[in-house]
Write a structure and sequence with these properties.
Blueprint (H helix, E strand, L loop, with lengths): L16 H23 L26 H18 L2 E6 L5 H10 L2 H5 L7 H10 L27 H9 L5 E8 L6 H6 L13 E8 L9 H4 L2 H10 L2 E7 L3 H29 L7 E7 L9 E2 L2 E2 L18 H12 L3 H4 L55 E2 L1 H15 L6 E5 L17 E2 L11 E2 L4 E3 L3 H13 L3 E7 L7 H15 L10 E6 L17 H6 L6 E4 L4 H13 L4 E5 L5 E2 L4 H10 L1 E3 L14 E6 L1 H17 L5 E6 L17 H8 L5 E5 L4 H7 L8 E4 L10 H7 L4 H11 L3 H4 L1 H21 L4 H4 L6
EC number: 4.1.2.-
Cofactor: thiamine diphosphate
Keywords: Lyase, Thiamine pyrophosphate
């Protein structure tokens, strides 16, 4: 195990003056580059007076947070080099994109991945021009930014990402700059509790840097206005010991920041060394740096008579009318020249050696650390052979298993086989046992650093199952873990995964952009297991019934998203085998935890999952008759059961009707091939669903999704979808499908209503189906359970 970082840097009285001057030069250079990216289209070194044609036609980007981020970047360079630290930084104020780009350009890592943006005057000009410019790079910290694992466009997730990166990385320091606007978000507030799950022996350290520059876009921030004693009480209540840095005089702030970082890192080294050499007596109290510097520091003090630096007006572009307003142009030139670029860059635009004196080299640079390009470190996950866990299926529908419990055995083995590597985690909001995955506890415990009681179960300081009742934090942990080169699974109740809708948006965007960057290596997929689903919320009812996460995900980039609805235990194993091995996807797997019929043996399940959608000939009655009279299709475990039951009723009562039964595992198969890599060609789709026969489709979620995915197909006018209609309550399992018109009796009625020629000759059968639904309503109100013909049903073929 790597040792904790040790102090090898500053002498006892602080840094020597020449080192402070070198840090200040680096900081000034970074500020100059950040401002230049916002404003300059040409004349990067100010070798001639600024003219309007040197200015970008559209001024985009954010200046306000950049000087503070540059200060952090400058000082992290110093301690990384002094202490030979393996460190990354999560930049929470993503609006500070120009600052992080400036830092990576100065350390040379930017030019290594983008050789055309060389570390000279020509490269500086390209750096400036490309920022927030058509064909260029975004204004936020983004996948294009070397050294980043965090898309900063949406605030609130930085600290969760930082802790995810530190898990199982004992030699890694993860610093995290938290903007004071970001600190007001719910996800960030919850993330302060992540230190209760950080194992100082097996995990790395997280050093939060709370950057209080006082303002958001147009308002003051809550934490910046708190009296310092109250803020300290808050941070201590979260389990941190605050170290303060404040001021607006650069050299004084440099000395204070250098001292604060040394103090924080010495504390971290002591805490880790004590835990690793002497054992853990109690949860450590980790340091946090509170950094107070003015918003827009070193920028224009006043513009058009209004104060700017140190106010909310510095948030974005302090001088907006530079091309049209000669006074603004003069102010901009004075501002840029105040950094004395002639001292910072030589005549060719290269950074002078003295300002790079404190910058680390090679992989130690923040822009080049492989942990921030996790695919470089990723190892294949040891997924065991499925034969060991598959359930025997002699004939379809004769036995039942709980699919997620079966999966739990496989996950236990994965957890066991990664015990030494420690690169696999399962996260979830207090639901691992509820979701029938408790087999994991035979291989590992639940991460926990607080006190324990005799009644507690499975809590462990070294555990790799992580539970906290915050879907945001679970998602953030896993994203940080995956992006730094590891594997994982997020298990969640289906209805409440919506809490992370916007987080998965950002991760999907990250993966989409990363795929276009050759230097970004593929990372393990983000895998969701959604269970306790809409159809089996028997005791929780309507509040726990929402299958719409699939709809949300399928709106996103098709090259990234995948959705699977395995109908039984063996298909769930096959899907899990695939998603755990996959790269650069967001995989959503919806599977039940209640007893479910076993339809396919393992070989059949593998073949079916490989197809993504296919016919189940044993359930249909085509018998080689050419095209069927009707297609009964299903996606999802409960819809599959209802379709098979409906097929059985048709076989018994209308044996001359040729019924084709289709099951869909991969929802993206319904899309056209041109719109999704898994989509079917029209020929494939027509062969499966026909071009003109009635298709009755029983779907797990909202029925309009199936229409949206298949609206271009020839058969669409004859497609009738049954699904969840927001008719939820606390009731019996079968009553849920009846209330939403997804039950077997309704499906048979749909076949009769929509198959030409059946409406007249099958009147008696239709009436029988309606009577069964009426009988069901009376039965459940008297007995509180489903009718025996439903509760005791099984497929007899």
């Amino acid at each position: 195990m790597p040792d904790a970082p040790t102090t090898t840097g500053s002498p006892s009285g602080g840094l020597a003056d020449d080192r402070i001057r070198a840090l200040d030069a680096h900081w000034r250079a970074a500020n100059y580059l950040a401002a230049g990216q916002i404003y300059l289209l040409a004349n990067p070194l100010l070798t001639e007076p600024l003219r309007p044609d040197h200015i970008k036609p559209r001024l985009l980007g954010h200046w306000g947070t950049s000087p503070g981020l540059n200060l952090v970047h400058t000082h992290l360079n110093r301690v990384i080099k002094d202490r030979d630290l393996d460190a990354i930084c999560v930049w929470g104020p993503g609006h500070g994109g120009p600052a992080v780009l400036a830092g990576s350009w100065l350390d040379g890592s930017y030019s290594e991945v983008y050789p055309d943006v060389s570390r000279d005057a020509a490269g500086m000009a390209r750096l400036f021009r490309q920022f927030s410019f058509p064909g260029g790079v975004p204004s936020h910290v983004a996948p294009e930014t070397p050294g980043s694992i965090h898309e900063g466009g949406e605030l609130g997730y930085s600290l969760a990402h930082a802790y995810g990166a530190a898990l199982d990385n004992p030699g890694l320091l993860v610093t995290c700059v938290i903007g004071d606007g970001e600190a007001e978000t719910g996800p960030l507030a919850g993330s302060w509790h992540a230190n209760k799950f950080l194992d100082p022996v097996h995990d790395g350290a997280v050093l939060p840097i709370l950057h209080l520059n006082g303002y958001k876009i147009a308002n003051p921030t809550v934490l910046a206005r708190l009296p310092e004693p109250e803020l300290d009480d808050l941070l201590r209540g979260y389990g941190h010991e605050p170290i303060h840095v404040a001021g607006d005089e650069p050299l004084q702030v440099h000395r204070s920041m250098a001292h604060a970082l040394d103090e924080a890192l010495d504390r971290i080294a002591l805490l880790q060394r004590t835990a690793r050499e002497e054992g853990i007596a109690e949860r450590p109290r980790w340091p946090v740096i509170v950094l107070r510097t003015p918003k827009g520091w070193t920028g224009p003090e006043e513009v058009d008579g209004d104060p700017v630096a140190g106010t909310w007006r510095a948030h974005q572009v302090p001088l907006p009318g530079v091309r049209e307003n000669p006074e603004h142009l003069r102010q901009l030139e004075r501002w840029l020249r105040s950094y004395r670029p002639e001292e910072l860059f030589d005549a060719d635009g290269r950074p002078r050696p003295d300002l790079l004196a404190e910058v680390p080299e090679g992989d130690r640079r923040l822009g080049a650390n492989p942990h921030a390009n996790g695919g470089l470190l990723l190892r294949s996950l040891p997924v065991p052979d499925l034969e060991r866990y598959a359930v025997p299926v002699d004939k379809p529908g004769a036995t039942l298993h709980e699919p997620t419990r079966v999966l739990g055995g496989l996950l236990e083995k994965v957890m066991e086989d990664t015990a030494d590597r420690r690169d696999f985690r399962v996260v979830g909001p207090d639901e691992t046992a509820s979701n029938r995955l408790e087999a994991l506890y035979r291989a590992t415990g639940k991460a926990w650093q607080e006190s324990t009681l005799p009644t507690d179960e499975h809590l462990s300081r070294t555990g790799r199952v992580m539970e906290i009742l915050s879907e945001h934090l679970c998602q953030g942990w896993l994203e940080g873990y995956l992006l730094t080169g590891r594997h994982g699974l997020f298990s969640c109740y289906e209805a409440f995964v919506h809490i992370v809708d916007s987080m998965v948006n950002q991760h999907i965007k990250w993966l989409k952009v990363s795929r276009s960057l050759p230097w970004r290596r593929p990372v393990a997929s983000l895998n969701y297991l959604l269970t306790s689903h809409v159809w089996r919320q028997d005791h929780n009812g309507f509040s726990h019934q929402d299958p719409g996460f699939v709809d949300h995900v399928l709106n996103k980039s098709p090259e990234v998203v995948r959705v699977y609805l395995p109908p039984d235990a063996n298909t769930l194993l096959s899907v899990a085998d695939h998603v755990l091995r996959s790269r650069d996807y967001v995989n959503v797997v919806v599977a039940g935890k209640q007893p479910c019929f076993d339809w396919l043996d393992l070989d059949q399940a593998r073949a079916h999952c490989a197809r993504g959608a296919g016919t189940w000939d044993w359930a249909g009655t085509e018998n080689g008759a050419g095209e069927p009279d009707v297609v009964l299709a299903a996606a999802g475990d409960v819809p599959t059961q209802e379709v098979i039951a409906a097929a059985g009723i048709l076989r018994r009562h209308l044996p001359d009707v040729a019924v084709r039964v289709v099951n869909v595992v991969d929802m993206t198969r319904l899309l056209p091939k041109e719109e999704h890599p898994h989509g079917m060609t029209d020929h494939e789709f027509d062969a499966l669903f026909t071009r003109d026969r009635p298709v009755i489709f029983a779907y797990h979620g909202y029925p309009w999704l199936v229409h949206r995915l298949s609206y271009r197909r020839a058969v669409h006018p004859n497609l009738h979808v049954r699904g969840y209609l927001e008719m939820g309550t606390t009731t019996t399992p079968f009553d849920m499908v009846v209330r939403n018109d997804l039950d077997r009796y309704r499906l048979v009625m749909d076949v009769i209503d929509r198959t030409p020629g059946l409406a007249v000759r099958a009147t008696a059968v239709r009436q029988r189906m309606q009577d069964a639904r009426t009988r069901h309503q009376a039965w459940i109100r008297e007995h509180g359970t489903d009718m025996p013909e439903v509760a005791e049903w099984s497929w007899t073929g």
